[in-house]
Amino acid sequence: MSFSIESIIWAIFFLPVISFVLCLFKFKVGESRLAGPITVFSIGVSFILSLYAFAKILSGTPVFSERLTSFSWIVIDSFDVTFGIILDPLTVSMLVVVT
Question: Which parts of the chain span the membrane according to its record (predicted)?
Answer without folding.
Answer: 7-27, 34-54, 74-98
